[in-house]
Amino acid sequence: MEHKYSACIIGTGRIGFTLGFDKKREQPASHTMACLNNPHIRITCGCDRDSEALLNWKRFVDRHISQFSLNKKDKVKIFSDKQIDELFLSCNPDIVIIAVNEDSHLETALKVISKKPKLVVLEKPVALNSKEGMKIVKAAEKNKVPVLVNHERRFAEDYKLAKKYIKQIGAVQKINASLFSGMRLYDPKAEKSGGYSLLHDGTHLVDIVMYLLEALGDTKLKQPVITGLLKDEKEKKVIRGFTANYSTKQCPDISILMSGRSRYFGFEVDVIGTEGKICIGNGHAEFFKRQESKLYTGFYSLVEDSSVKVPKKTRYFANMIQNGVDFLDGKEELRSTLETGMNALKVLEDIKEKIK
């Protein structure tokens, strides 16, 4: 199939490239692999401040192009992070993927957006803070450049199924969302780098809660009440645990728990309704419905809904890239936007102000 759109990847590190070699992850798991696997996209150039990483990326992409491209002589061009102008003069890509570290989002996004590509794919979170994020929003509006934010679970088949199933569990009574890791949740020393879990991983948890709430007509989380605040034993300004509690018009009880002292990585969301329940997280998705109880006469219990067929693959990264293609083709709207990304960022900032 003929390639429709040219693409440039800025940032050839983990999410940009090397996670595509993780044998335990569902693939594709990086922007490079997702683009290479999409028949409508051809990668034409790459950019990184790490010259060695960039050369390794080029060698791999060139080998792939020589095997699968319609034009066997195609070679990708590479540029340093200081050569954005040269990159656009030479390649003028339709799609630009920004997969740099959080502290470089603002500078890189503003440079790229000023060149007016057809689509920008921006790694989460939008920026280090909402002030920087609004600069990106204003630049995108001024230059009329659409931006897709990679909150990847919005594209995953299991979470899409969960959002649809919410309508079958009655009135939603409670949402429990949890993130467990060993990374510091907040460290004031990491403000300039964004290297703390509240921002780095918490953005996924907050965004997916807001994604599920969209099914109920709720789009905002405001005025958190913080409980269970836990500070590091040695560094009192470092936060290791908290729960942020919310109430919305459609769901009276929402809790977002984050732990930075766990010896494992966990990500899970439970949605409890009056007639059913959804339990979903990394590697699992269960759907329960109300049924006459086998345990108690005259009662109903929740049993797993055997009619729900959970997809074996979530296609989270593949669907994200395809959403960009379908948007450019005029077939659908972007499913994760600057607006939804900024909503998540503002929630994280509200929490940070309460816990620091």
Sum this structure up briefly.
Helices cover 31% and strands 24% of the residues. It has 356 residues and is an alpha/beta fold. The longest helix has 18 residues, at 51-68.
Key structural traits:
356 residues; alpha/beta; eight-stranded mixed sheet; six-stranded parallel sheet; 10 helices; 24% strand; globular
Notes on the structure:
The protein is α/β, with parallel strands linked by helices and 356 residues long. It contains ten helices and 14 strands. The strands form two sheets. Strands 8-9-10-7-11-12-13-14 form an eight-stranded mixed beta sheet. It has a six-stranded parallel beta sheet with strand order 3-2-1-4-5-6, sandwiched between helices. Helix 4 links the parallel strand 4 and strand 5. Helix 4 runs parallel beside helix 5, helix 5 packs antiparallel against helix 10 and helix 8 packs across helix 10. The longest helix is centred in the first third of the chain and has 18 residues. The chain is globular. The mean pLDDT is 96.
